[in-house]
UniProtKB/TrEMBL annotation:
The lineage of its organism: Bacteria, Pseudomonadati, Pseudomonadota, Alphaproteobacteria, Hyphomicrobiales. This is D-3-phosphoglycerate dehydrogenase. The keyword NAD applies. One of its GO terms (molecular function) is glyoxylate reductase (NADPH) activity. Belongs to the D-isomer specific 2-hydroxyacid dehydrogenase family. Keywords: NAD, NADP, Oxidoreductase, Plasmid. Residues 27-314 form the D-isomer specific 2-hydroxyacid dehydrogenase catalytic domain. GO terms for cellular component: cytosol. Residues 109-283 form the D-isomer specific 2-hydroxyacid dehydrogenase NAD-binding domain.
Amino acid sequence: MSKPHILQVGPYPEWDEAPLNDAFTVHRYFDASDKESFLSSVGPEIRAIATRGELGAGRAMIEACPALELVSVYGVGFDAVDLAACRERGIRVTNTPDVLTNDVADLGVAMMLCLSRGMIGAESWVKDGSWAKKGLYPLKRRVWGRPAGVLGLGRIGYEVAKRLQGFDMDIAYSDVEAKPYASDWTFVADPVGLAERSDFLFVTLAASAATRHIVGSEVTSALGSEGMLINISRASNIDEDALLDALESGSLGCAALDVFEGEPALNPRFLALDNVLLQPHHASGTVETRKAMGQLVRDNLAAHFGGKPLLTPVL
Ligand code: 8YV
């Protein structure tokens, strides 16, 4: 039996490539120099798209594949997949929730600690000889016991809040409604109100049109000149120009960011700031989690082509 043809939008770790190529005839979009003519030549054969969270699949790609049945996303976020285009044609969509939750939460909390305690600068202090020449490293701010807010108490937000509990923090969260499983934490419906009572604000919202720029100048001002914003979700949840203005003026204390508009080509204004911790969108980037994500991408593809229920359907 001939193998189903799939379009691979971006590279995966090497351990995913062999099993993917064994099971499918894989067309590597990211290797094509002329993407448009590549799509018009292989598009008619494509029955599934295997993509990554941040790469997704836009309408033009979906429309270039008239026989498309499934988009399988390596990532929990599916905001870069044109769901309307998929719905119109009954195309199924899957993602990789759960398997990455704990690692993403870990990185968020690690960024908070790293930035608050000045660990990057402290390492330079050791390596460049400042410790010996200038003496003690400047004092930084404590984390434990301070008020923290979690904007979006889904799977990842919940795991962040659980970890913050270990630091005896005073935890509050915003979501569309109070969550029955969060009775230990304070519910604050309004993100500005949440920011007002928080020294650290984690953005853990699934991105959508409804959450676009939910963090803007009102939220950053409410967080204030001593506050820290931590984003491990999507850049679109934050008005990046407003964030940069706030960081440059000092109306927001600092920010720890794993995601950026137009990444990996981030706004150069970020690079000139010393009150940021910048990370290359790697919150799910552990060997263990990435192996589980790759397996789930393939399991969803196999379930679909085997006529079985999808494991983690979005649509
Ligand atoms: C990326 C992510 O998919 O889960 C998500 O939504 O953005 C990430 O896990 C990852 O960077 C791999 O490309």
